[in-house]
Write a structure and sequence with these properties.
This protein is mostly helical and 182 residues long. It has nine helices and no strands.
């Protein structure tokens, strides 16, 4: 299943590629924070990163402008996502644990790192498409991205991280890159 299904990409990205990128980014952020003395449960972090978009295997990637068009649509997509994750994860013996991880994938300290990595993956993909391949047709994906990154600075979960300076620096760099890409 490809991401950005509503957009023409020069270099299409699968859900698996996106998940790999989020895992790698989350790992490096987690390790950097650990080096600065932060207590990070790397196993939980990586579990959340691996499973955060598992529902997209069935549902596909739904762009934020569509996903958040209305409360009713957002609720319907959430229900569809829940059913899709349920269908995929029921096959595993540790079903309850996996569903809990999926539900909480972007909650808590480790979940915050996954949420940040997920946004950074979009920045990376837009940089690749726009600057690398000259694909201006994806610019609409950039419209709310700086705002979404800025909101991450004020997310309640960031207060669980002691060294927010590192996080804010990463977000500021990503916002600067977004402004360069536009």
């Amino acid at each position: 299943m490809d991401r950005y299904s509503q957009t023409r990409l020069v270099n299409p990205e699968s859900v698996l590629e996106h998940t790999g990128w989020v895992c790698m980014c989350a790992f490096f952020i987690g390790m950097e924070l650990k080096e600065e003395g932060e207590e990070i449960d790397m196993g939980l972090l990586m579990s959340k990163a691996v499973i955060h978009d598992i529902e997209e295997v069935i549902v596909g990637d739904i762009s934020n402008p569509t996903k958040y068009y209305s409360h009713a649509l957002t609720d319907q997509i959430a229900e569809l996502s829940q059913k899709s994750a349920d269908k995929l994860l029921i096959e595993f013996d540790s079903y309850i644990d996996l569903m809990d991880i999926w539900i909480d994938a972007k909650i808590g300290k480790e979940g915050y790192i996954v949420a940040l990595s997920d946004k950074l993956a979009v920045v990376y993909k837009m940089q690749q498409e726009i600057l690398g391949f000259g694909n201006a047709s994806v610019r609409f994906n950039m419209e709310k991205l700086p705002e979404a990154l800025e909101q991450l600075k004020n997310d309640l979960a960031v207060s669980e991280i002691e060294n927010t300076l590192i996080i804010h620096h990463m977000i500021n760099e990503a916002i600067a890159l977004c402004n360069q890409i536009k």
